[in-house]
Specification:
Chain B: Conjugated with ATG12. The complex is a heterodimer of chains A (219) and B (329). Chain A is of the alpha+beta class and 219 residues long. Helix content of chain A is 29%, strand content 22%. Chain A contains 6 helices and 7 strands, in the order H-E-E-E-H-E-E-H-H-E-E-H-H. In chain B, 26% of the residues lie in helices and 15% in strands. Among the domains of chain B are: 108 residues, Roll (Ubiquitin-like (UB roll)); 53 residues, Orthogonal Bundle (Serum Albumin, Chain A, Domain 1); 41 residues, no CATH class. In chain B, helix 6 packs antiparallel against helix 7. Chain B is globular. The chains are: A alpha+beta (219), B alpha+beta (329).
Chain lengths: 219, 329
């Protein structure tokens, strides 16, 4: 089986950093009007990995499920850009908008990225899981109902040390292996695009819309 | 020295912390206020598992409402998913006996502490930790995921009841050890090293000695903190974990999976999530399962015998830092 891809679906800390940079640039090129990913560096005590940190996307506005009359197809707006006129904006800029923060953190145990997220109402009041669930796509709610403790849980954010919601990473390497490693078994996977590929799957689970252009390797 | 000592494991399983639990004054509605209750908290257990013992003692004095139980030590909310023994070793440099804790049934600080919804929360936190350890050791957590419901339940109940023999019987089927000299070091800084499968002999360039001492292991895991000779410095001993505000965590604890994947837990100081170590930080004490270890003990003996049931070894490291606040980031 010479040349067969033995990649196990994981990525190294350095690949994570490089891929984070790639995702940040691609996102900026595709969605310049949306909130941007920012690399937040952190120096954990005594860990020698030089450029440790995580990716943050904050203030992502999302119409809550109770808002029926979505004026455009795209449900995600930035705080700065209002795609519809002010009259409509005033009406809907109220209890029906939820604001989400997403962080992509590297897990040293599982050697994969992990998504941490939390939501707020417009008044700053944090969303409980039951509120967040209403924002999730239907299939995510279904999975959550079936595997309450192993799919989406509240955990301590590894760097901020307060509770955030997270998607459990134990299956990530398996499906990333299928996603990125399946095409050409004799070639090594393109690690630079790991995060874009990963986010295209994981983002959908939490209702974060990922533009198709994120997969375009020419950007 | 043999790698596994059932006698040592027995000592660990039988270890317990005498606790004196006080009800928070804001939740006392009767006069005279109820006295504190004395309970023994198993070292390898978790504080929420003691609630069935504690609650009846206070239930007649609680205000009406629904309970979300949480504990604090001197105002610091305690992370319920950390084993009781580790909490004690981290927070009490000078062991306090009994250990005085405050229990709350209301007013859960949701902004700093994940809520615990009873025994199920603790069980799943434990299972997730076990999965993480299995993943580090084997590269996958299939053995844990494929456990039958009955086995999972029995494993958990053995832990809750302190039934070591029952636990060892089921956990041995998971094939997560014992760990020996053929295991690979993988730390967060080793991204440059080629990855090897567990079980292969370690052929890294550094050429590990055949019997890795605890001291050598600590130098590998904490190279910036661990110095060969103790340094002379004027810094007052400030336990890492001394906190100013309630929104802080505590304790510098290295938790190491079977293949030594090192993760340092951070210590926020009064809301600051990071601590900048001084260059001359000095190790004051290292404690595992309440024991200050002889640094020459073979590391694998420590791993195999002093680890917790979720296959993590919790190493509590106390280092000296300056009391000068301006040095902290």
């Amino acid at each position: 089986m010479g040349g067969h891809c033995l990649w196990d679906g994981t990525l190294s800390p350095n690949d994570f950093i490089a891929s984070a940079d790639d995702l940040t640039k691609k996102w900026m090129a595709i969605n310049p009007n949306l909130p941007q990913w920012t690399w937040i560096p952190c120096q954990r005590m005594d860990v020698s990995c030089n450029a440790e940190g995580y990716l943050a996307l904050e203030n992502m506005y999302q119409l809550s499920a109770s808002e029926v009359n979505a004026p455009t197809d795209d449900e995600n707006y930035s705080a700065e850009e209002a795609p519809f006129d002010n009259a409509t904006l005033i009406q809907s800029y109220n209890d029906d908008m939820h604001i989400y923060d997403f962080h992509i953190v590297y897990s040293f145990s599982y050697q994969v990225p992990v998504l941490y997220f939390r939501g707020y109402r417009c008044d700053g009041h944090p969303l409980h899981l039951c509120d967040i669930e209403k924002d999730l796509p239907p299939y995510s709610s279904k999975i959550r109902n079936e595997s309450k403790w192993t799919f989406m849980t509240q955990e301590e954010h590894p760097y901020l040390c307060c509770p955030w919601y997270t998607l459990h990473p134990c299956g990530t390497s398996d499906w990333m292996k299928l996603l990125l490693g399946g095409d050409l078994p004799s070639k090594n996977p393109d690690m630079l695009h790991y995060l874009s590929a990963w986010l295209s799957v994981v983002g959908q689970t939490v209702g974060l819309r990922i533009p198709l252009e994120l997969h375009d390797k020419s950007i | 020295m043999e790698l596994c000592s059932k006698e040592a494991v027995k000592y660990v399983w039988e270890g317990a912390i005498p606790l004196q639990i006080h009800l928070h004054e804001s939740e006392v509605t009767t006069l005279p206020p109820p006295p504190p209750i004395l309970v023994l908290g198993s070292r390898i257990g978790y504080l929420p598992l003691l609630v069935p013992l504690i609650k009846p003692h206070f239930s007649s004095t609680l205000p009406p409402g629904t309970d979300t139980v949480w504990f604090d030590y001197k105002g610091l909310p305690l992370k319920w998913y950390i084993p009781t023994g580790v909490l004690f070793d981290l927070l009490c440099a000078e062991p306090e006996r009994p250990w005085n804790l405050t229990v709350h049934f209301r007013g859960h600080p949701g902004d700093v502490l994940t809520p615990c919804e009873g025994e199920d929360s603790v069980k799943w936190s434990y299972i997730n930790s076990l999965k993480e350890a299995a993943y580090i050791i084997n590269g996958n957590c299939k053995n844990v995921m494929n456990m039958s419901q009955a086995d999972q339940l029995e494993l958990w109940q053995s832990l809750v009841k302190g039934n070591m023999d029952g636990y060892l019987r089921i956990s041995s089927r998971l094939k997560l050890g014992p760990l020996g000299e053929d295991c690979i070091v993988r730390s967060a800084s080793s991204s440059a090293q080629p990855r090897q499968a567990i079980g292969e002999p370690d052929f890294t360039g550094s050429g590990r000695p055949c019997h890795l001492s605890f001291k050598c292991a600590m130098k590998t895991l904490l190279p910036k903190i661990f110095f060969e000779e103790p340094l002379v410095d004027d810094h007052e001993f400030l336990r890492e974990g001394e906190t100013v505000g309630a929104d802080s965590s505590y304790g510098d604890s290295e938790t190491i999976g079977g293949s030594w994947n090192a993760q340092a837990e951070e210590i926020p100081f009064a809301g600051q999530p990071q601590v900048q170590l001084l260059k001359k930080s000095k190790i004051k004490m290292i404690r595992i399962q309440g024991i200050e270890l002889d640094m020459d003990i073979p590391f694998f003996w420590v791993v195999n015998n002093l680890k917790n049931p979720e296959y993590f070894l919790h190493i509590c490291v106390f280092i000296g830092t300056s009391t000068d606040q301006s040095t902290f980031r």
